[in-house]
Amino acid sequence: MKLSLARDVTLTPVDSGAVLLDGRRGRYYQLNASGSAILHKLLDGDTPAAAAASLSASAPVSEERVHQDVLALVRSLSEADLVEVTQ
To answer: Which of 7, 31, 33, 84 is the most buried (most CB within 10 A)?
Structure first.
């Protein structure tokens, strides 16, 4: 899976994580620090499994749970048309 920001969507880091601006609709979406870290890893080319493994190594959460959270984040961002997912 390859993830990229949708056209007219910008990602800006903030102290608490990141903000996505959908320029087409003029809407902001906020990600916490974990969501921001996941999104950056995926945008840099990591697979969901690799992103989950990396994050679970630094948190007291199982890798399977983090993997489910990664997939849920991708699904939510995709449904909001903020990212494009290709195989």
So the answer is: 31
